[in-house]
Amino acid sequence: MQLTTTHLLATPCDDEEDNMAMLCCHGTHGEMFMLSRYPDEDEVELTWDYEPSTLEGLKITLSATTLLVEIGAADKDALGGSDHLQINHGTAEADLAEVEETLQNILKGTGTYIRTP
């Protein structure tokens, strides 16, 4: 499954939301994707098209132009029946450090994060 967005919005630690880390974007066709996690929780909340699910064991790969989200086969209902979502993004290079920090905070101890060029 694919989604195209102009940029990824990232918040590594939101003080007003009990230090929640959140990454989200809206697709060019109105789709909405969001990952979030509170630091004291073991599960990640993934929201796809406004339907939230809690997951463990996510694998996320970030590059300069794509974000690949991979989930276990047992959780594929969270992505409308698919086990992956490729997000093509136009996030500015200067903003990718914040995206990376946010993903590391979300996945720490519960998933896998990979950064590629």
UniProtKB/TrEMBL annotation:
This is Uncharacterized protein.
